[in-house]
Design a protein that fits this description.
single chain; mainly alpha; two-stranded antiparallel ribbon; 9 helices; globular
Length: about 200
């Protein structure tokens, strides 16, 4: 009644693997009608109960997003609701809707909301395939918010954006900069692994 099963060949559709951020296979995922990821299992379900639990989780996400959408429609200037809706879209990977909501926050929000929305928008552009736009946003964020706690994350994403644009040497330089400036940050491990993968590709 509520779900339509679809099987995807991960080898044939690497674009969907990246878009949906599939980390392991097999993966069982639930989507909204718009393509948002509502729930996921990165293993063979051990019981039917696990599947049912995730189906309930998916329906709860849909209900939550629909409620937030109605709230924002009723009070379009309510920044708290708009922020919650933007983050909900982000969480379930509705990237285009997330981009629109964060853009509204950037135009209407308070300084701390603008900073947070600007950081989110870098990753949203990465996932939408808007690599040049994302790169410009990353560079602008690092320039405007040099003391932000999110600088290591944005700098790492900048490397990913450069890599997706085919600018491998620049991507490696960006990741090495993350390793140098933020050796204890969680992004440093990701940057190190990215450098190793990129260097192998350039050989």
């Amino acid at each position: 009644k509520f779900f339509v099963p679809v099987r995807v060949d991960a080898d044939a559709r690497e674009d969907l693997v990246r878009l949906w951020e599939v980390r392991d296979l097999p993966a069982l995922m639930w989507f909204s009608p718009e393509g948002g990821v509502l729930a996921r299992i990165h293993e063979v379900p051990r019981s039917g109960e696990i599947v049912v639990e995730n189906m309930k989780k998916a329906l709860e996400w849909m209900t939550r997003v629909q409620k937030l959408e109605r709230g924002v429609m009723t009070e379009p200037d309510n920044l708290k609701r708009l922020k919650s809706l933007a983050e909900a879209y982000y969480s379930i990977q509705l990237w285009n809707k997330s981009a629109d909501a964060f853009d509204r926050l950037i135009k209407m929000g308070q300084p701390e909301q603008i900073e947070a929305a600007s950081e989110f928008r870098v990753y949203v552009d990465l996932m939408r395939g808007k690599f040049l736009d994302g790169l410009a946003r990353a560079e602008a964020f690092e320039k405007q918010y040099p003391e932000s706690k999110d600088i290591p994350k944005v700098a790492y994403w900048r490397g990913l954006l450069l890599y997706r644009l085919g600018r491998c040497p620049e991507a490696v330089a960006a990741w090495e900069d993350v390793l140098k400036r933020f050796p204890e940050d969680a992004q440093a491990k990701l940057a190190k692994e990215a450098v190793q993968r990129a260097q192998k590709k350039m050989k």
